[in-house]
Each structure stands twice: as structure tokens, then as C-alpha cells.
Amino acid sequence: MTPPTPAHTDTPASAPRTALAPASALPAQDISAEVLLEKYAKGDEQTLDELRQRVARALAEAEAPEARAHWEARFLDAQRRGFVPAGRINSAAGTELTATLINCFVQPVGDSIASVDDGHPGIYTALTEAAETMRRGGGVGYDFSRIRPRGAWVGSTQSSASGPVSYMRVFDRSCETVESAGSRRGAQMGVLRCDHPDIEEFIHAKDHGDLKNFNVSVGVTDVFMQAIEADAEVELTHKAEPGAKQRAAGAYQRGDGLWVYRKLKARSLWDQVMRSTYDHAEPGVLFLDRINADNNLHYCESIAATNPCAEQPLPPYGCCCLGSVNLTIFVRDPFGPNASFDEEGFAEVCKVATRMLDNVLDVTPWPLPAQQQEARNKRRVGLGFTGLGDTLVMLNQRYDTEAARDVARRISEVMRNAAYEASADLAVERGAFPLFNADLYLSGGNFASRLPQGLKDKIRAQGLRNSHLLSIAPTGTISLAFADNASNGIEPAFSWSYTRKKRMPDGSFKEYAVEDHAWRLYRHMFGSDAPLSDAFVTALELSAADHASMVAAVAPFVDTSISKTVNVPADYPYADFQDLYTQAWKAGLKGLATYRPNNILGSVLSVEPTATPEPLKPVTADGTNQRLRVERLPTAVLASLRWPSRPELPGGNPAWSYMIRHPHGDFALFVGELPAEGPDAGLFGKNLPFEVWVNGAEQPRGLAAVAKTLSMDLRTNDAAWLRLKLDALATVAEERAFEMPMPPNGESRLFPGVVSATAAVIRSRCEQLGALQEGGPTPVLDAMFSREEPRTSTMGTLAWAVDVDNPATGEQFTLTLKEVSLPAPDGGHITRPCAMGFSGNYPKALDGMARLLSLDMRVMDPAWIGMKLRKLLNVGEPLGHFMAPVPTLSGERRQQIWPSTVAYVARLIIHRYAMLGVLDEQGLPLVEMGLLQAPVGKSVSTSASLQVQAGKPCPECGNATMIHKDGCDFCTACGYVGQCG
Fold first, then answer.
1. In whole angstroms, what separates CA 759 from the centre of its chain?
2. According to the model, what pLDDT value does residue 602 have?
3. Comparing 267-276, 732-741, 828-837, 958-967, which segment has the lowest mean pLDDT?
4. Which of 132, 186, 266, 806 has its CA at 20 to 30 Å from residue 852's CA atom?
């Protein structure tokens, strides 16, 4: 068979063709069966049909007894024909679990601690209700705008308020605690109005890793957007009385009773939103006035927040009962000149799906009575679709064209009409939702008022069973399990194929090929060598405006909202990015979310060859209260890091492994490798080592941190520096020496401890690969102000010490930093740490980390040690997390949960650098030395493969490569799909 001509969207009629194979002819993907069994199947279920039968039977329980068998068969047929209930329904319906079948809720939050505030529960009452909701499997969204601003007066206690962001941290920790009791991570959305006095703190709350269990969005008003256009000021207001300092600074009370805390330029605040979104992918934006004006229930509710995925604006205690129809099922003659969409069949499935979702509201367990009552009063459901991107490809339509948007409009229109017709018919059979009022519902410029006249007449005559019916949600893992990895929701495909590396119970990894449905169908029909048609376009090949245009095309046919992540590449210009949300507001959208990959992993050494510096003379100092001092710095000879983090590896990479056998158990050591290219080939041989990691339950605590920091050293393009690091680890002694076989022949060697043994194995592999050979550039080594640890005279020197207490592990020890004075650019001196050590009860593997970081401290540019320390802040240990004070320059007293002793130690060292005016509290240099510069990514991907991108740490593979894709967490290194929302 001849594939469609790649240069055109339609195949010429003269092209030779035979009957095309249907999608059902495709063999199942192994990953689909794996995800089905892992996340959704229950008991002895092994197949899709067995699971679908359970769901159909469970939802048919809401029917009259004599009709249950009929509807069970209809519900099973609808699932076979493309309807995919949301993940909560598929995983819990028809089981003995008391988990909710509802994905997400909105929880009201008042301003008091425990009492009701204008119908809103107090903060800690809301926290308890949210915890119960998450315990049952539901995600929660909140509007925190009622909480009084930081510094506001609290009359009952004669004190100052701490502000909404401080309470968000309490909700954040609660979510993390509740999630640990179950297998599903809790999802949360935090919203704050644009006119809240703490809005700037809120915008930047996640800039440095805080609120990890939250998505955040700014609730924006039309008044604010108009002020941006007029370059006017906006008032930041609240009903709570300001504190004395705020009143002294100019806060005043308006005629309407609200207090104006301060004013600022709307454009200034908006630029903060856009800059933060560009750099950190948050906050998102909700257009509150548009949401409420379009709301079918504008006459009886006010909406201020959404569920975590943001496709469901909801009132207090509102819920989203979701399901999606796989559009690819309804494509006839895919890729052919007569490719078409079966509207009639699609409408039939949508009508049955509407009934199924209405039944969910009657059979689900409810976490809270208030949620059940809210659902009974309004009976919101959210029918959507998935696979739009693939469907357009199969219809020969390129996603970023007007023709494709026309197709999407028509599909959305068919879905809207079918859902509203089915709900009106259900109202005849079961009754309209209790708050239905035909005159109010069908008027006022809301969504329902714009329905076709025939539908409005039917609703007026028959009533309506459900106040809202449509929502396009992220489909995440259900697309993998139930739709052959069809493109997610409204999105285009993110990549055509990639390798999913899944961690197994024994710590090993199993690899699965994951292929996009439309792409594999095309290959199945035309062969692996057939050129792709022009319709094959991925998310990152599209402009941000093209993404937004598709939302604008579909939005008029969706009564709630659409989960759409505008993914743009890392090098997308800010000038093009900054107007996205303004354009979305002008287009009448209810909100927007964006994701631009951002490298949070530090900087790269620049290439500036100069003369080799003279060796430093021994450094000494004496006298009472003296510090070590270096009088003259060398001239750095710098070359670039090969990568700032793991390189982009769409096809995976080989890893050499070795079992470390030590007295307390065994664990696996891995050295990740890549084929060397270009000039590196001669220096490093066949393969290039670029990372090390350890795996196994019996690895010594703290050894993972040694591997993490050593991985960065492997990527420095400095063999001498790597030798120096391995030399430093070679003599790390622990409680007792032990013998261990060494590669490649298994000869036994005596080692003073497990750190030295691990370093010896790494050295052995690096030597095999030629990565330690003499010669070549020495950029990092030459950037040190002292290769040896500066030594004192018998008079000694000052040092900084701090105590660490981890009750979770029983560790109590002291961290000590030796410090040295260096010449400063202004002619004076600046104090810098130059070595570190531990004393007391601590994991002995930390001695290895101390030796490595001590060398890093002596690199002239403090951005280097800052990068190393920031990498260690997210090191976690099973059962090793604990609560300890947050070190701050301001002296603020607050506690925080730390994921491990290592993370806390790294934070303390950063704090000391901040005390000395060298780094800020985030570990970034206060004064740029010019030796380090922004990293440049290296791509080795193809158009049909996944591009590895920097992002959050992945819980599956551990790489900092997890991004937000199509509304879900997605690891671009191993293919893990996590939380959606």
C-alpha cells in the first residue's frame, strides 16, 4: 500500500490503494497491559473486557432492578466502542474499596482557624475535610483568598497574621502525609485572587521548590486585565484590618469596607506572573469573571477555584465526575483520501456515557456529606474526549491548521449536542437536578443560553438532569491502558515513540516500547520505512499560539473548561511567550497553563583558555582569632562541562553494573555510559561515563549523595579533576576494613570502608574506558584557589559549626566548616568555606561526601559549589525524613520536613554561604564571577522519539527530567506517567 504523500494533507485520488487495515488489527502494546494490571485491574482481572464488565455491572446498580441487565450490556458496549471512564471509576467501581469514584473536588477555606466564616469552614476544619477527601482518593482545589494577608491584625489574639502562603504549607505537608498511606499521590490546586495583598508572595511561592504537592493559579479579574491594557495601578485589598505597620505605610479603608493594603502597577504584577510561568511553569491563570459569566448556574453559585487539572471550575464542595471518549475509534478509512469521522456512532456512545456518569453520582462513596449534597443538588458530570491529536492525523489534518480546528469544532459540537440531549431525556425519566430553573438556566449570556434553539426548547420542556455535562480532562495513564496510547485529551502527540524504563520490585529496570497510536497504525499499514505524512506534527513543533488556537476553537462547545498545557521548547523566546495569557483572555478562554522546560540544574563552565596558573604556595595563618588567608588567586583556565545534567537520551543508554559486597549487605553500582562522539572519542575511547548511582536496600546511608555529586564530576571534561575526586575517596575509613572482589577478574582487595571500595570500582571502570588518562584540558582543577586543603599553624583558625539532630534515624552530630579569606574584587577580602567535616553519630558514608564537597568549595566561582549543594537538596531516604528548623537570615522561626539528613546538611551549608554574603538562600551566587554561564542543551533526538528535558525529579528513575505534559507529570527520561493535575 502507498502511504499518503508527505507533502500534502490529502492523498491524491490516483494513488494505488487497497482496503486499509482497521485499528483493531493492531497487536496490543505490552505497556498497555502492564499499566492496566498495575493501576486498574482488580482481583483476577487480566483483560480489558473483564475490567469493563466490572465497571458496567457497578454502574448498572443505579438502574431499576428489572433494567440492570439491559444497561449493563449497554454500558459494556459503550466502553468497547471507545468510552473510557476516569481512572477513579476504572480502579474502584464494583470493588470492596471505600474509595471515591470522583476524581477531584473543591474545598472551601475560610479565614478563621476553626469556626465558620461566612459559610466557609475554618482553616483547620478545611484541612481535616481535605485530608479525608484525599484519603479516599480525591484531589482537592482551594481558593485561599479569604485568609487574611501576612501582617494583618488578628484581634482575638492581639497578633499579626502569617498569610495564606504559610497555611498553604500546612496543607502541602498534610497532602504528603496522607499520600504516604495510599498508592495515589494527592493532587492539590491552590488559587489566590490577583487583588489579594499577598499575591506577589503567592506568585513566587514555588520558585525554589516549595509547595511541591500543589499546582497554583492566579485568579484574575477583568478589572485587572483592563488595568494591564491601560497601564494603570490596581489596589490590593482584603476585608481584614491591616496591622499597625501596614497602616503606617499607607493602608486605608475604602467606602465599601475593604482595606487597601497597597497599590502597584498591573503590568508589573502581570510581568511577575509571566516571568515565573516562563521560568517555572507556574502559576497558571484562571479568568474568574469569564468562568462565572459562562457558568450555567450563575444564578445560584459563585466559583473561585478549580480542580487540580483546572478543567473543572467548581463551587465549594463541588466535584468532577469524569469520562472520555476515544475519538480514534470513530475514524473511518484512516490516512486514506476518503478518511472520515463517524459522527452518528460517536453521538450514540456519548449519550450512553452521559447516563453512566450520572449513575456514578449515585453509586460512589462520598468522602464528605457536604460533597454528596452538592452533587445531589446540581449533578455535575464531565464528559470529554481523548485522542484528538491522533484523530486529526488519521483524518490527514495537521493540528495547527484552520481545517484541523474546524474538525475539532465539529466533533465538540456533536459531543455537546449528544450530552445535552441525553441529559434532557434523563430528566424525563429521573427528574431534573433540584436547582434547575429553566428561565434562569437558559438566560443571562451563559453557556446554556447559547445552545441551539432546538436544544433549549427541549430543555425548557423536559428539564435537565445535569447542570454541567462537558469537560476535557487529561487522560494520562488511561490513554495508555485503554486507548493504545492515543494522544492525550485535546493535545497533539508529544512524541511518536519512546522507551519506558520501569523499575521492578528487585530494583532492576524493564524496558517497554511505547508508541503513539496513530503512528504505530500508520507503520502497521504502510511499513516502517514509509515517509510520514505532513499531518504528523508533535506538540513541541507547534507554536504556543497554535496550541491556544485549538483551545479557542473547542472552548465554545465545552460548558466547564479544558485541560490544555501549552508546551513550548526551552529556547522559546520570552517576547513571544509573554502575551499568551493576554491573548487567551481576549479570546474568551477561562484559563491557560503553559510548560517550558527549564534547566534547574546549575550552570556550565565557559571556554576561556589562558596561561596555566602557577601552583599555590602553602597557606598558613596564626594569631588569636585568625582566619586562613590566600593572598593571590590563580588565573582560571576554563572549558565547558559536557552537560549540566544527564544528556538527552531518547533511545536510552547502556549502563555498566557491579555488585558491591560489603559486611552489612550487597547493593548494585551502576555507571551510565554513552558512545563518545567527535573529539571526545580519542580522549575517552569507545564509551563515555557520565553518571553513577547505587541501588539496593542494603546500601549504606549517605552513599547515594556521594554518587550524585560524583556524577557531576564525570561530566566536567576534566580527567585530572575526576582523578582528584576518586583519590579523595580512596582512603575514606569506616568502622572496619573488609575484603571485596574487584573487576574485571574478581581478585580480592582489602578496603578501609565501603566508600573507598565503591570509588575503586568506579575508578576501575573509568580506566577501562580511558576516562582517566593523562592529558587533555583541566578546566575545573585550574579554577581551584587551593588544590590541597589550606593548613593552619599551631595557632589554629576560626571555623563554623552547627549541630544536626535527626530523630527519625537517631543521628546526632556536628557539621564543621573550615573557612578561608580570599581576595575580593574591591581590594578587601571575603570569607569562604574551604573544607567540611563531621563529628558524632552520623552515617560514615558522609565522610566521602565531605571530601568531595571540600574540593568543590575550593573552586573559585561559588556557583560551582552552589550547583552541587542544590543537587543534594532533594536527596531522599526511606524513613529518613524528619522535621527541623529552616535556617534563615531573617531569624524567622519555622519548621520544615526534610527528606533526608543529606538534604538538611546541604541546606545548612547553603545558609552559611548566605551568612557570608557569597550565595543567597537558594544557593545561587550573589556576585557573578563570569566563570560559569548558562548551560546549552544537547539534543540527540529524532522527530519520532522522545526528547529528554530537564524538570522535577522523577520518582521512578530519579532523574530530574519530569515535566508537565498534557496535564500530567511525565518523565522524559524513563516514560513514567504520574499525577494528572
1. 33
2. 25
3. 958-967
4. 806
SS3 192: strand
**Does pLDDT of 181 surpass 70?**
no
DSSP assignment, residue 311?
S
**Same domain membership, residue 176 and residue 91:** no
What is the per-residue DSSP string for 398-449? -TTSHHHHHHHHHHHHHHHHHHHHHHHHHHHHH---TT--HHHHT-SSSTGG
Q: Give the chain's domain count.
A: 4
Cα 344 to chain centroid, rounded = 38
Contact assessment for residue 498 and residue 514, using Cβ atoms and an 8 Å cutoff: yes
Q: Which of 104, 175, 194, 309 is catalytic?
A: 309
User: Catalytic one among 90, 215, 307, 806?
Assistant: 307
Q: Among 56-70, 109-123, 811-825, which is the least confidently predicted range?
A: 811-825
DSSP states along 725-780: HHHHHHT---SS-EEEEETTTTEEEEESSHHHHHHHHHHHHHHHTTTT-S-S--TT
DSSP code per residue over 14-36? TS---PPPPGGGSPPPHHHHHHI
Amino acid identity of 819?
Answer: E
Q: Are 223 and 290 in contact (CB under 8 A)?
A: no
Active site residue 229: no
Per-residue DSSP letter, 40:
I
Pairing of strands 960-965, 882-885: unpaired
Bridge-based pairing state of the strands 284-287 and 305-306: unpaired
- Tell me the C-alpha distance between 738 and 663, whole Å: 7
Claim to verify: residue 800 and residue 861 sit in the same structural domain: yes
Task: Report the C-alpha gap between 605 and 589 in whole angstroms.
Answer: 43
Lookup: cell for 337: 483520501
Is residue 311 among the annotated active site residues? yes
Active site residue 309: yes
Q: Give whichever of 59-73, 266-280, 798-812 has the largest mean pLDDT.
A: 59-73
Cβ 795 vs Cβ 626: under 8 Å: yes
Q: Which domain holds residue 842?
A: 608-633+786-933
Q: What is the largest CA-CA distance in the chain?
A: 97
Parallel, antiparallel or unpaired: strands 284-287 and 215-220: parallel
pLDDT at 17: 34
Mean pLDDT value across the chain: 85
Work out the pLDDT band at 343, boundaries 50, 70, 90.
very high
Helix runs in 61-163, H state only: 68-80, 87-92, 123-135
- Return the bridge partners of 968, or none: 965, 980
Asked if residue 953 belongs to a domain, the reply is no
Verify that 699 and 838 share a domain, yes or no: no
Could you tell me if 912 and 819 are in contact, meaning their C-beta atoms sit under 8 angstroms apart?
no
Give the 3-state secondary structure of residue 855.
Answer: helix
Position 876 confidence tier, pLDDT thresholds 50, 70, 90 = confident
Grid cell locating 529: 520505512
Q: Rg of the chain over CA atoms, in angstroms? A: 30
658: its cell numbers: 557491579
Work out the end-to-end distance of the chain between its first and last CA atoms, rounded to an integer number of angstroms: 42
Can you list the alpha helix ranges (DSSP code H) found in 222-368?
222-230, 244-248, 266-280, 288-294, 343-363
Instruction: Select which of 129, 311, 673, 691 is catalytic.
Output: 311
505, 488 Cβ separation under 8 angstroms: no
> Do 180 and 57 share a domain, yes or no?
no
- Residue 38 sits in the same domain as residue 168: no
Whether 681 and 770 share a structural domain: yes
**Residue 941: its pLDDT value, please?**
32
Place 787 in a pLDDT band, splitting at 50, 70 and 90: confident
Does position 309 have pLDDT exceeding 70, yes or no?
A: yes
